Amino acid sequence: MGSKAWLVEDESAREMLDRVLTERPFLLLPPLHRVPLRVGNIVEIVGPSPSAKTHILIQAAITCILPRQWKGVNYGGLGHLAMFLDLDCRFDISRFSDLLNHRIMEAANGSSSEVDCQIKESEAQNATTKPYNEELFASCMRRFLYIRCYDSSEFLATLKTLHYRLQKERETHGVNVHVLLIDSIGAFHWIDRGSSSFSLEGDTRKSLHLQSVTETVVQEIRKLLLVHPMLVMATKAAVLGNRYSMNDSKRNYRTWSAKDNLHSRNVTSSDQQVPYREYMPAVWQSLITHRILVRTTDADFVNGEHQNVSTYLSEWLLPPLNSVDKFIVRDVRKHSCFAVFKKKNQISTLSFSCI
Amino acid sequence: MAPLKNLETEYPIIDSNFQNFCASHGIFSVEDFLIHDLYMLAAFAEQNVSSERLKEGITQILSIIDDMHQPWLNGMELLEDAKRNKHFLPTGIQGVDLLLGGGIRVGQLTELVGPSASGKTQVCLQTASNVARNYMMLYLDTGNSFSPQRIAYFLGKTNELASAQAKNQILQKVMSNILCHSVFDIFAMFDVLHQLESNLRCQERGGGCRIRLLIVDSISLLIAPVLGGTSTRGRALMASAGYLLKKLAHQHNLAVLVINHTVGSEGGTSKPALGDSWKSIPHSRLLLSCDRGSNVYNVSILKHPSMCLAVSTLRYLSRALFCIYLCPFYIRLLGRLQGLLFRTCPYRFAGDEKNIEKMELFHE
């Protein structure tokens, strides 16, 4: 009887789709909007420093912690928890709160893209809607969980105990952690590589060097995702092979990879195709489901009124979409936000279209 | 990291049986647990005769590991800490303070990049003299560039109207608040910083910690010699130094200011001595440059956590212009154009208004 009831209770495909879309919504966040992202995906954002990588993570976190609707206003968020593992130790909470405030004001004023003509208006309304927004702001900020790690052992200790932390947070907040943000994954690369030379007593003992650390990180994330489905987004600082340092980077690349192959064989052989120098071990590469490259543009920015504007390019490497998107981070007073997205140089039609 | 046998006195569950079990899997310390699959270990423990006790031991180890990481904080707690502790330290140079929105941030690592004689040490000394009026500060000097005379000079200039006695009092206070250390290699710097860390920890327990600023002039002179070649150890030292500075800054509420000099690169242009792998370490990076002809000094933000800037080395989105002449210095805020701008005039031209106006015209 039990099994029959279970069968009868089953849902139609339409109901299932509705349920899945509400329980595991897509994150369509510019400039990652070309590929719908959902829990279980592991996205790597590669780019030189600075290329708005952390900014993309912050915007993802804000989208995640904002409610879908609150007191009749549509905020378009997910209303879940967001976790931020700060390995670079450069996170600035005041910027985060500025951006969150900006998003709240933007939604409250019903504006969509015309940010700067309404900024003055929103300032005027700021005074009247302050207590109203304060409550929302505080509840959003409480849904943002942050930790900083100063070395690999702290990072591993965090990952090892993350399962219990996630359970605890789910109990206290009643919602799941939807995104896990890591900024940035290669932060301890040099320290871990340096420590690989101190191998101690015997072969059975693993030491805390690059290969074993990365293996454990990958293993822990894999296991975590089985029990707590989350969207994982990690940034990776990369050195682009650019015009003036081409010779330099080639020379370095050859010596480094030769050295790597000697003891850990950790660099993939398909390196030559990517426009940056890959340094994360292959085991990390195999974990990644999506990869996007961001970089600054060489093109001149529009001067004059758009003085506080930075233009970046984004390009999906995994899945490989042959299109380059231009996105702009605008500094509105202290608020920077993604504002304009222009399609540039679109070569192929998109197979991953957004709903 | 604690070897397991040292934990036995504190946690009786980690007995010799448990230690032997761990040793058979190549685990001798808590650190070893970090890179082992604990679920797999628990599965092995299942097969053992005393499986319950072993699993209890693993749970105990897990709670020890839980204390090894920094505490989890939510956004409100972070914001509260930032509002209470992470304020701005004014550098005392008006243009720079305006550009940075109030000065260098406590809890952050700020880097000054520039060719020689572009005013890097000048900015450091001036910041030191300004901050030392209220707080203690530590100056790590790697190239004998610290000059008490120049600091005394700044103080004299900013307190021109004060009486001789008041001037002397300020001078005494500022000089006693500046701790200067000469370090000539990176290991000496690690020594000093670890010493500082333990001192600060003691002082904080006593409640009387007043060190607010740490200047390393210049960090590139310490790091550049250990870099180079194919050795990864130099880079590991560099990254460790960066993390140590950031940890000190955040946990003990210090503002850290470091200097990075520039070297020539292939294209005939100059580039920062600590390049791409250092770039992701500091919070903000300021580029100083000097126009030899007009003696106008530029400061540009190359990177800042709350200003999203994508700038190549040739164009700057926001900048402050200022002039610094070799001693004597005289700084005067004249006005602002376009971005943020201020200039200083040489002491000998202090009264020469015509000359200043000419400079202003030139820039407009």
UniProtKB/TrEMBL annotation, chain A:
GO molecular function, a single term: ATP-dependent DNA damage sensor activity
Source species, domain of life: Eukaryota
Single GO biological process annotation from the record: double-strand break repair via homologous recombination
Domain RecA family profile span(s) in chain numbering: 17-239
InterPro entries per UniProt: P-loop_NTPase (IPR027417), RecA_ATP-bd (IPR020588), XRCC2 (IPR030547)
SUPFAM superfamilies for this protein: P-loop containing nucleoside triphosphate hydrolases
Transmembrane portions of the chain: none
Gene Ontology cellular component terms for the protein in this record: Rad51B-Rad51C-Rad51D-XRCC2 complex; replication fork
Cited PANTHER family: DNA REPAIR PROTEIN XRCC2
Protein name: DNA repair protein XRCC2 homolog isoform X1
Organism listed in the record: Durio zibethinus
Automatic annotation (TrEMBL), chain B:
Matching SUPFAM superfamilies: P-loop containing nucleoside triphosphate hydrolases (SSF52540)
The protein's role, per its UniProt record: Involved in the homologous recombination repair (HRR) pathway of double-stranded DNA breaks arising during DNA replication or induced by DNA-damaging agents.
Residue ranges of domain RecA family profile in the record: 85-262
GO molecular function, one term: four-way junction DNA binding
Keywords from the UniProt entry: ATP-binding, DNA damage, DNA recombination, DNA repair, DNA-binding, Nucleotide-binding, Nucleus
Coiled coil: none
Family of this protein: Belongs to the RecA family. RAD51 subfamily.
InterPro entries linked to this entry: HRR_RAD51_Paralog, P-loop_NTPase, Rad51_C, Rad51D_C, RecA_ATP-bd
One Pfam family matching this protein: Rad51
GO CC list: microtubule organizing center; Rad51B-Rad51C-Rad51D-XRCC2 complex; replication fork
Listed name of the protein: DNA repair protein RAD51 homolog 4 isoform X1
Superkingdom of this protein's organism: Eukaryota
